[in-house]
Structures are given as structure tokens and as C-alpha cells.
Amino acid sequence: KHYSKGDxxxxxxxxxxxxxxxxxxxxxxxxxxxxxxxxxxxxxxxIWRRNKIRRIMKFTESIVPxxxxxxVELLRGEKExxxxxxxxxxxxxxxxxxxxxxFRNLLDLEDLQxxxxxxxxxxxx
Length: 125
Description:
4-stranded antiparallel sheet; alpha+beta
């Protein structure tokens, strides 16, 4: 599939249906993490001070020809198949698309179980 500069391949929260391989062009993966925190400390005998903090962090990664993206959500399981980030084209790009069924057919059941366990262990660390 061909995408123009500025086109969005997929957005965070969309259902993950495919793995993508970049043939030509330049793609950027954008991830935004929001952390809400509340600090409470004493300011007197019966007075507590509250301070709410919202921290927003943005991460980006560039994908160049020959690299692939979108695989993690396909390996996480049916209940967790939502996209974790947004993917945008920085240049006119040609992307090869492998749907979820085709991708899983390339792997046998033992491979899938090993990958799922590895992903689970990384999340818990």
C-alpha cells in the first residue's frame, strides 16, 4: 500500500489487524504516556497540602526501509490487540502489509507461546 507524507497508518487504540514492513520511505512511531501523580504532605497540625502533577512524555522512533512495525500487538493476544501508538509517514512510503492470520500462520504454536511469555516477562520487569 502507498502512503503520502503526513498520512496516518494507524492510531493508538485502533484494533491491530496487520504487521507492516516498510519497503520505501520513512515512518515515525509516536507514543504518548501520561502520568498523573498526587503528592500529599503535612503543613501544620491538621493541614495537609495536596499537589497534583500531570507529566506527559512523548517518544518517537523512526522506521526505515527493511524494518517492520505493528507486530507487538499481534503477539499479545486477542484481548489485548489494540494499537499502543500512532504511526505517521514522514515521506511518501510504500508499505507491505501482512494480516494477523497470515502472520500467525508463519509461526507455529510453540513459537507463539514463547513470544507471549517473553512479552509478559518484559512487561512485569
